[in-house]
Amino acid sequence: MFPWLSDLLAPVIGVMRLLRSDMLLIALGAGSAFFATVLGIPRIVRYLPRDRGRAFAIDADKSVGKPMGAGIFFAMVFAVAVFLFVPWRVDILLFVGVLLLTAGIGLLDDRTGGLSQYQLALFDFLAAGLSAWLLVGGADAVDIWLPLVRGSFSLPSPLVVMIFTATIWISINATNCSDGVDGLSGSLSVVSLVFLGFVLYGVVGDQATADYLLIPYDPGTGIWASIAFIMVGCLAGYLWHNAPPSTVLMGDAGSRPLGLLIGVLVCASHNVLLIVVVGFVILANGGTGIMKVAMKRFFNVLVFGRVRFPLHDHFRKEMGWTGTQVLMRFVIAHLILSALLYAVLLKVR
Known about the structure:
By secondary structure, the protein is mainly α. The chain has 14 helices and 2 strands, in the order αααααββααααααααα. The N and C termini lie far apart (about 60 Å). Mean pLDDT is about 85; it is low at about 5-20.
């Protein structure tokens, strides 16, 4: 009836259609999370606990007195960004709640230092189990795919929940152990999250690509990819203040929810061995230390006896690397190894 009005509104309609596109929402979410974190951290540092140092850690005295627990802030920014820029889904909203609770428990430990390793391990197990249950979503069976093997396998959901729980628990603790050098845990996590985002959005979440690579297609993984990139924005904002020499630390309030998210995204891909691809250096840095302690404590077997863990302390103490050298070399190794393993994961099937 009013063609002139249609012509006038055409650019507006085009912009609105563009705003509904997944990629633009991801960019808006990540960008908003970045600026909110960059601008917000200086305003909340006065309320954060102070680092008391870590026993036996190299150069722990350099962090004493710095604000720590900033992870609680970027976890909250992440939650708001997901609420605003990701389509609402019950399992996603519940997972964000679990992530915030994990950050809160981490902040409690940062503030009081009163939680024992067993208490933290138990809570990590509960958070991992609940997240695994949310991922399975009441299905009777879940399709799992593996590297170097064609096709997929259908496994009963109780078994999948147990496998997912173990994977997420390992991810939480390995990421937590990697926090100890300015910028290290955040930078390694950014690399892992970017790789995970591409796998979830462009491989598992794209039917043509999934069919070509003989991988089970899952249309719901695009939302998890959006979540990955939003956390990348949060971490970039945090690293703005945590780059050497840092002015603020994420603490357990950041490293534990980060590990939770990485583990959940790995499981959302339906391939738990993806954690080795996207988190090889994180696992080598922190996960092997967990294995060393567990073997000694529960089986009285000493492995890696001459190696100091986390590995970043070994390189600083035994090899004489500076914190900045550890950061740059670990990130470079993480990028190269992830790219190589990524290619093997997808093409050699």
